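dude i think i finally got it to work??
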Amino acid sequence: MQVTGFTIIRNAIKYDYPVLEAIQSILPICDEFIVGVGNSDDGTLELIRLIGSPKIKIIESVWDDAKREGGLVLSIETNKVFDAIGKES
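look at this
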């Protein structure tokens, strides 16, 4: 069995979201951890890269802000990450 963790994030620094701490807390029990990083304007992508774990796979994405209503954009971005589970970079 393989354990995969995932998250999607955008502008974590700007909104003071503790994404670094969240990922680091679960990383020890994961075989892989996929991070969907949306088009941020605050250095979020660089922050995720600083973790430096070979378990982390980063999926860069541009979020469609026209699909924010009802959380559709979150669903779309989550599906992108799900599609990457178990696939090599």
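The CA atoms of residues 10 and 63 lie 9 Å apart.
im so relieved honestly
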